[in-house]
Design brief:
The protein has helices at about 20-30, 35-50, 90-95, 100-105, 155-165, 180-190, 195-205, 215-230; strands spanning about 80-85, 85-90, 110, 135-140, 170-175. By secondary structure, the chain is an alpha/beta fold. The chain has a five-stranded mixed β-sheet. The radius of gyration is 17 Å and the shape is globular.
């Protein structure tokens, strides 16, 4: 399903607009205080200190890469990691390779970069119409600090959680698999697995190199504070 169709299943969200981008941009600038910056730097430190030297940044060739004479060489541009049991974060190539998704047993695909503009991935529910086992959800996000990704945190968490409860495997992806998709995967661990932002980032960074932009980090900080209050 697309993000528009999700409204009947998941909580209603505000429309994506330039005005909302500007509002969030103002919010981010207001948060750029010493305390806010310190919190963001702390999360960045967690990412950098946890990063495994055995993992590579996008451009990493899949372990399935072999010579061109091997049919599995079609996986050569795939960059995808299991960051939590049955939760995968990957790039555009991972999402578009139906052969790879079948091989990995993926049952749910969350595209956090749905669209046809630069930096987005032009898949939708119709792309997977010949994959009856795959359920699809897409968010029309761009990788920019002023993008309000937080509006999709609970929708993403619910989608991933429902996949987990059904025994499925989820691929959360964007263009490169390091910012939008990683941020939504972190939000899932925070909301559904009761992890703090630091714990969730550390969990994912052990298995994949990620780089959420600073605006997304600030929104994860805000989510962390909100959840801490709710769980008191």
């Amino acid at each position: 399903m697309s993000w528009r169709e999700a409204s009947s299943t998941f909580p209603r969200v505000h429309s994506y607009s330039a005005a909302s981008e500007q509002r969030l941009g103002s919010y981010i600038r207001a948060l750029m205080t010493p305390s806010g910056s310190t919190t963001t730097r702390h999360l960045l430190h967690v990412i950098n200190s946890t990063r495994s030297p055995s993992h590579h940044l996008p451009g990493y060739r899949s372990p399935y890469t072999t010579s061109s004479s091997n049919p599995e060489s079609s996986f050569k541009d795939i960059d995808c990691d299991e960051v939590y049991p049955r939760l995968f974060v990957g790039n555009e190539e991972a999402a578009k390779s139906k052969k790879y998704l079948k091989l990995m047993g993926i049952t749910h695909v969350l595209n956090t970069a749905e669209g046809k503009h630069f930096g987005q991935v032009d898949t939708d529910h119709l792309y997977y119409r010949d994959c009856p086992r795959i359920k699809y959800l897409g968010f029309p996000l761009i990788d920019h600090p002023s993008t309000d990704i937080s509006r999709y945190f609970y929708i993403a968490a619910k989608f991933v959680s429902e996949a987990m409860y059904s025994g499925g495997k989820v691929l959360v992806h964007c263009k490169m698999g390091v910012s939008r998709s990683a941020t939504c995967a972190i939000a899932y661990l925070m909301i559904e697995r009761n992890m703090s932002a630091s714990e969730a980032i550390r969990t994912i960074s052990r298995n994949r190199n990620i780089r959420p932009n600073e605006g997304f980090m600030l929104q994860l900080c805000k989510l962390n504070d909100e959840l801490a209050i709710l769980r008191k």
